[in-house]
Design goal:
Chain lengths: 567, 243
């Protein structure tokens, strides 16, 4: 088996698992055995393939292949390098525990698993593709699986939330297609390599066409990453989805398109301007997201707003990296820290969604003003070891950037590298507010004076297994943060830089800063529980996902980016 | 508030068109590289006379796989929502057109006229659908188009025939659908074991018919598309309760 067949395995093996499940379902053979077999083929085997590929990517081997082995550039190019390896690994690290968790819910039938596996394949394909039209197709598959998974929730309004997301993102994809058409028109090719060859010789009207097309493509892809002002769809969609799906969508799926976009941005001549907009958009997303989270009273919506805020960190570092150029040392470090933080957030947010989801299910309410005593309720419903509470605490530490977790390293390195840019201030403020917001969420686990509510009893085996995987990733990642960070830096070097290292920096030097942040956050929490302060917060208007507003935000993002490019 | 919304919509449309118009109005000469290459090599590369087939099942088969997945997922999603809605509304409304002594499941919109025409058309349309599917590599057509025609034939049969046939049972149809999806994935993976890689043609040298892989894919995709759309349509007509 050659290297091409090996790195394409994360695409076709999940598809095979999905196809087996479809057949098993139609022939009435579906059951636990089929599920475990699909789990082995669709998730474990791809992970083995990735492990086998590790030596190749450490040696900075990158492979460009044409699907179907056509001897022409009309075919679809796939590009395998450290970036795609990392993205697929990130997805597998979250989707394996999430799949385990989803098995604990009896309402997730075979069709859930089928769509789950198809989504896995689409994520791998998005990370690997180096073809514009294929990127469109991969994003479509990823989108349509998300819509269906969101709508599969039993909660009221899930279909409407999914429909809002569908309409908004489908409309944006039409613009993506127009952009792909424009780029094909002036460059005569769909593969990134050939577009970049022609791109530099464009002048006059053709250049404007190329810039407009690129704007359409970039903004439509950023919509999937939910950067402000394109984030209106996220809160409804991610809070109404089943817990396992929320974890996957908020953890992984909003980040993959961002990093898939990097291959396209590297080809652009004026990419530093796009980078500077992205850096600011990231900072603003972080601040706006957390402010909205602070006034939210529903647990899962708070987590969803926090996702908007946390993706802001990733986008800010990503934008800065593009702005300073990936061939410089700082750029290489920034992009690595962006991906590193994406990983930290993905694991922490997945664990948060799973633990909060389980806790609110046990309590029977998501309202933070009423829900108390989750630990007791969980115990009543059959959880012997209070692992849900412990996992929540670990995830809370990580997302608040407190040692000894992975998030401590990720966030501190990111803000350290972003220093000097305006959005770094926004990020620092957000760090304080993040702790405040999560302290507000923690009231769920406070002991309650009222009698314990027990909604239903269930077995916690699969749930605990998923907690363990994610929790150990956060704690183990915290211990081995330095080698892990250097591993990511090394893998991402082929994107442009020759050498980069972050030897002179240790997050321990910022322990004082972390302490100060924590104190400030505690102070703010103390203030915000004040009656007057609560009234003031409640006066802020609640943003609603109206179509007019969503599309207005989209048009605004389009025009800002187009203006920056043409200028 | 309404006024503000209207202003937003107008600004949105203006800004979007500002970006799209230059792309549409571009007078850059059309790219010729792909056209010339396809004219010269498409037939010898893939064996298909119909260049469209050569593109969507040959050079860019991966995109086609993606679109098939989109179809599969959206049909699954639609069925799930239909089941959800079916649970909520138990009393089915009947229309004035339906015949009174009806026992078949797909009875809601049936009239004598519809029944007569549909039952006569059904078999012919089915044959035509298979023709379009099987000859996709030579003449305009192919798996997707043929599949949709097959689906409409099945819908005709479901509307028109007196007896309940196997062909219109969602149970049988979804079995065919699942098997053809499994076959599609197996066909795309098989290249991995025959040196031609993922989506490579595994039977290139095995037969004298040079378009063999394209014909195979056309049949599989045709069955997949035909059955899944038929299942969805029959379910929408209220006929999925038979299992």
């Amino acid at each position: 088996m050659n290297i091409e067949s090996l790195f394409l395995a994360p695409i076709y093996l999940p598809l095979l698992a999905a196809a087996l499940l479809v057949s098993a379902k139609a022939f009435g053979q579906a059951g636990k055995t089929m599920d475990s077999m699909a789990f082995l083929i669709g998730l474990i085997l791809p992970a083995v393939c990735l492990a086998l590929l590790k030596p190749a990517i450490i040696a900075h081997q990158s492979v460009e292949t044409v699907i179907g082995a056509w001897d022409t550039n009309l075919g679809i190019h796939y590009h395998f390098d450290g970036l795609s390896w990392l993205l697929i690994a990130l997805h597998l690290a979250i989707s394996i525990p999430v799949f385990l968790y989803s098995k604990s819910n009896p309402s997730h039938r075979e069709s859930f698993s089928i769509i789950f596996f198809i989504q896995c394949a689409s994520v791998a394909a998005t990370s690997l593709t180096a073809d514009l039209f294929n990127l469109f197709v991969c994003l479509e598959v990823m989108g349509v699986t998300s819509y269906v998974l969101i709508a599969s929730s039993d909660e009221d309004g899930s279909v409407l939330a999914s429909f809002t997301y569908l309409l908004f993102s489908a409309t944006a994809m039409v613009f993506f297609l127009v952009g792909a058409f424009g780029l094909y028109r002036v460059t005569g090719s769909l593969s990134y390599a050939l577009i970049s060859q022609v791109k530099n010789s464009l002048t006059g009207a053709d250049l404007i066409v190329a810039q407009m097309s690129l704007t359409l493509i970039v903004v439509s892809t950023l919509l999937r990453c939910a950067v402000v002002p394109l984030s209106g769809w996220l809160v409804g969609a991610h809070s109404k989805a089943p817990h396992a799906v929320s974890a996957l969508l908020s953890g992984v799926l909003i980040k993959i398109p961002l990093f898939a976009l990097i291959r396209l941005l590297l080809l652009v001549t004026a990419s530093e301007r796009i980078g500077s907009i992205l850096a600011w958009a990231g900072g603003v997303s972080a601040a706006v997201g957390i402010l909205l989270a602070l006034r939210e009273v529903q647990a899962k919506r708070l987590l969803a707003y926090s996702s908007v805020s946390q993706i802001g960190y990733v986008v800010a570092a990503y934008g800065l990296a593009i702005e300073v150029g990936l061939e410089s040392e700082r750029g290489a470090l920034l992009i690595a820290s962006s991906l590193f933080y994406a990983f930290c957030h993905a694991v922490a947010k997945a664990l948060l969604f799973l633990s909060i989801g389980t806790a609110t299910d046990a309590l029977g309410t998501k309202d933070l003003s009423k829900a108390r005593g989750a630990t007791a309720s969980l115990k009543g419903s059959g959880e012997r070891v209070p692992l849900t509470t412990i996992s929540y605490c670990i995830a809370l530490f990580s997302i608040s950037a407190l040692p000894p977790t992975l998030g401590f390293w990720g966030k501190n390195m990111l803000t350290y590298l972003a220093k000097g840019h305006g959005s770094a201030y926004l990020l620092t403020i957000t760090s304080v507010l993040t702790i405040t917001a999560y302290l507000k969420l923690s009231v769920l686990f406070l002991p309650s004076k009222r009698p314990v509510v027990v909604m239903k009893t269930q077995s916690y085996g699969a749930i605990h297994a998923s907690y363990l995987v994610l929790g150990l990733l956060l704690l183990g990642g915290g211990v081995f943060a330095l080698p892990f960070k250097n591993f990511i830096i090394t893998l991402l070097l082929p994107l442009g830089a020759v050498e980069a290292s972050i030897m002179g920096y240790s997050a321990y030097s910022e322990l004082a800063k972390t302490f100060l942040t924590l104190m400030l956050a505690l102070f703010l929490t103390a203030i915000s529980t004040n009656r007057y302060c609560k009234r003031l917060l409640a006066k802020f208007p609640v943003p609603k996902a109206r179509f007019a507003d969503l599309f207005f935000g989209y048009a605004l993002a389009l025009s800002v980016m187009a203006f920056q490019l043409v200028r | 508030m309404k006024k503000l919304e209207l202003i937003k919509i107008v600004i949105t449309v203006l800004l979007c068109s500002l970006l799209v118009v230059p792309i549409i109005l571009s007078n850059h000469s059309w790219p010729t590289h792909a056209r010339n290459y396809l004219l010269a090599n498409a037939q010898s590369d893939t064996g298909a006379t119909n260049t469209v087939s050569a593109i969507y099942l040959g050079y860019r088969a991966m995109d086609t796989l993606g679109e098939t997945l989109v179809l599969l997922v959206s049909v699954t999603g639609t069925m799930a929502i239909l089941v959800k809605l079916g649970k909520e509304q138990t009393d089915e409304e009947t229309t004035s057109f339906s015949l009174t002594p009806e026992k078949r499941p797909t009875n809601r919109l049936r009239t004598h006229l519809l029944e007569t025409v549909a039952s006569k058309l059904g078999p012919i349309v089915l044959l035509f659908g298979f023709y379009v599917m099987l000859y996709g590599h030579i003449s305009p057509g192919g798996g997707f188009q043929g599949g949709v025609i097959v689906a409409s034939a099945i819908v005709f049969l479901a509307l028109g025939t007196e007896v309940k046939s196997k062909l219109t049972s969602t149970f049988v149809l979804s079995r065919i659908e699942s098997l053809s999806f499994l076959l599609l994935i197996l066909a795309s993976i098989s290249g991995v074991f025959f040196e031609s890689g993922f989506f490579g043609n595994p039977i290139k040298s095995a037969s004298s018919l040079s378009a063999n892989f394209i014909i195979l894919l056309n049949i599989i995709i045709g069955l997949k598309v035909g059955t899944s759309i038929a299942v969805m349509c029959i379910a929408m007509m209220g006929g999925s309760h038979d299992h």
